Amino acid sequence: MTIDEGVVKYQSFWTRAPAPHAAAVDELETWRRPLFDAGLIGEYEEHGIGYGNISVRCGEPGQFMISGTQTGHLATTDKSHYAVVTSWNVHGNRVCCVGLSQASSEAMTHAAIYQLDQHIGAIVHVHSADLWRQYLNQLPTTSPDVPYGTPGMANEFRRLYVDTDFRKTQLAVMGGHEDGILSYGRSLEEAATRVLNLMGTAN
Question: How far, in whole angstroms, is CA 72 from its chain's centroid?
Answer without folding.
Answer: 11
